[in-house]
């Protein structure tokens, strides 16, 4: 059949139908081909060590690609840190840096896909990360990402409230005075203790719901509810290993944030790739 150039009306119709099909596919992807979480394995500290070793190996293999992919992450961190040096926002600088760990699973979506393709024996380049944005994936990943973003915003609101209840509500007069008040006053210590306690709760929530859910959504048409239930199941069945993994992630993210977030260029991809391999140890591949 001979193809013709067409006209603006036909172009608009094709675009509308194409958009409708895409939106339908994305909406349909929120459901699941599974009716219940799959069987999961017990994981140990040996699995964590193996996951980290494989994560480092993936990073060294894809180093130039991965560093390109995650460069935007520390850039955003630097911009936010500069904003926080406004005296009114200074008390939120540390919660801001700590809160980046809550958004790490979103930034690592492309890394999971790169590790998955390498595991499958495919030729992997930076374009592999973009292939994670397929129609059946982007829907549930976006919704789960919005959930984590909502948790991050709630954490920042809680941190602001804690400051207002302790050292606030007036902004610090200087950086030096703020540090002095935090280190030497009972209100400052109360702010630190409350902040660490509340932050721990937020971090545990994110860890439990995202530990294996993002990699699972990348690998199979699990649907968002089943993926989250599987992640909760893995955390429930492996509380000690999950706690150790969470501690490793928190310490690594903290160390990566110290030099103006630039260390995240290395920390984030290693943890992202390692998360995929820990998922593989916890959830057997589909038959």
From TrEMBL:
<dbReference type="InterPro" id="IPR018692">
    <property type="entry name" value="DUF2189"/>
</dbReference>
<feature type="transmembrane region" description="Helical">
    <location>
        <begin position="243"/>
        <end position="271"/>
    </location>
</feature>
<feature type="transmembrane region" description="Helical">
    <location>
        <begin position="187"/>
        <end position="212"/>
    </location>
</feature>
<dbReference type="Pfam" id="PF09955">
    <property type="entry name" value="DUF2189"/>
</dbReference>
<protein>
    <recommendedName>
        <fullName>Cytochrome c oxidase subunit I</fullName>
    </recommendedName>
</protein>
<feature type="transmembrane region" description="Helical">
    <location>
        <begin position="66"/>
        <end position="85"/>
    </location>
</feature>
<feature type="transmembrane region" description="Helical">
    <location>
        <begin position="91"/>
        <end position="112"/>
    </location>
</feature>
<keyword id="KW-0472">Membrane</keyword>
<keyword id="KW-1133">Transmembrane helix</keyword>
<feature type="transmembrane region" description="Helical">
    <location>
        <begin position="143"/>
        <end position="167"/>
    </location>
</feature>
<keyword id="KW-0812">Transmembrane</keyword>
């Amino acid at each position: 059949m001979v193809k013709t150039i067409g006209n603006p009306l036909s172009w608009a119709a094709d675009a509308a139908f194409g958009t409708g099909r895409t939106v339908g596919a994305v909406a349909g992807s929120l459901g699941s081909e599974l009716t219940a979480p799959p069987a999961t394995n017990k994981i140990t500290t040996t699995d964590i060590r193996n996951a980290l070793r494989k994560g480092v190996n993936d990073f060294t293999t894809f180093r130039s690609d991965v560093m390109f992919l995650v460069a935007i992450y520390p850039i955003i961190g630097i911009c936010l840190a500069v904003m926080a040096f406004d005296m009114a926002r200074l008390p939120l600088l540390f919660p801001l840096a700590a809160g980046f760990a809550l958004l790490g699973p979103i930034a690592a979506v492309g890394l999971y896909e790169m590790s998955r393709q390498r595991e499958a024996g495919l030729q992997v380049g930076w374009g592999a990360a973009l292939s994670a944005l397929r129609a059946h994936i982007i829907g549930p990943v976006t919704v789960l990402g919005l959930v984590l973003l909502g948790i991050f915003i709630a954490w920042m609101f809680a941190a602001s409230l804690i400051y207002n209840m302790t050292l606030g509500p007036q902004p610090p007069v200087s950086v030096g005075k703020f540090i002095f008040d935090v280190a030497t006053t009972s209100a400052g210590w109360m702010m630190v203790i409350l902040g660490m306690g509340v932050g721990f709760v937020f971090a545990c929530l994110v860890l439990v719901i995202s530990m294996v859910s993002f990699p699972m959504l990348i690998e199979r048409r699990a649907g968002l509810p089943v993926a989250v239930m599987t992640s909760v199941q893995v955390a429930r069945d492996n509380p000690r290993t999950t706690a150790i993994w969470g501690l490793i992630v928190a310490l690594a993210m903290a160390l990566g944030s110290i030099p103006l977030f630039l260390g995240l260029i290395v920390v984030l991809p290693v943890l992202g790739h390692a998360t995929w391999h820990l998922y593989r140890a916890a959830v057997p591949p589909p038959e």
